Fold this sequence. Notes:
CATH superfamily of the largest domain: Winged helix-like DNA-binding domain superfamily/Winged helix DNA-binding domain
Largest sheet: 6 strands, antiparallel
Order of helices and strands: HHHHEEHHHEEHEEEHEH
Helix content: 40-55%
Radius of gyration: 19 Å
CATH architecture of the largest domain: Orthogonal Bundle
Distance between the termini: 48 Å
Amino acid sequence: MSDVSAVELQQAFSCCGLTRTDAAEDTLKAMWELGGDGVAVGTTTLANVLGVTPPTTSAMVKRLVDHGLVERADDRSLALSDHGADHARRIVRRHRLLETFLSEVLQVPWDELYAEAELLEHAVSDSLLGRIDALLGHPHLDPHGDPIPQDDTDSLVASDVAIADVQIGTRFRVERLHNRNAEALRYLAELGLRPGVTVEVLEQSPFDGPLWVSVDGERVALGAPLAHLVHGQSVEETS
C-alpha cells in the first residue's frame, strides 16, 4: 500500500476519533445491508451476518456507540446514527464499485464478487476509487442490482420488494439479488433468476411450502430463504 493510500485510510474515521479497522467497517456495512439508515437490528442477527460470535459483535458495537456511529435503543436494538450512516454510505460505495470493476473489467464470476470485493475494500484509497469510478463511467448499479451512491446524500436502500411478498399472479421483474451467499446466487443463476429477468408468480404451496414461479415458461420452486433473496418490482406497478 502506498503512503498516500495508508494516510487516507487512517484518516477515514478521524472525524469521530475511531481507529479504523476492517471489523469496524464491516460492522457498519452489515448494519446498512440489514436494513439501512435508521433501521434497527439485533446483535445476534448482526453477528450471524458477520460470521462472528455475539460477544465479539457486542464489543465492536460498544466502540461504535461510544464514538457516535451507532445508537442503542431502550430495547437494546441497534441503528446507525446519521454520522454512522455517512460512514456506511462511503464503505458500501467502495464495495459496490469494486464489485462492478471486478465484474466488468476482470470478468470475475458474479457469485464470487462479494468475497473478492470484501478483501479489497479495506485497502483501496479514495483516489484509486475515483479512477475506477471514472473508468466504469460512473455506474449507478452494481452487478447484483444494488444501487451505488453517487454522493453523500444518496440512499443505498433500493425501493423494491422481495418476490416472497408479492401477490400470486403477479408478473415480477427481478432487479436485485442479495449477494453475500455465493452458493445461493449460483443456484438462482442456474434457475435463470438474474437482474432484468421477468417472471410470473404462480402459486404458494401450503404449510410453508415453496413459492412457484415461471421462468421462461418453466416452473421452478423457491423455498422461503431463496424467495427473500430475490427483489424487484411488479411489472404492472412500474409500467
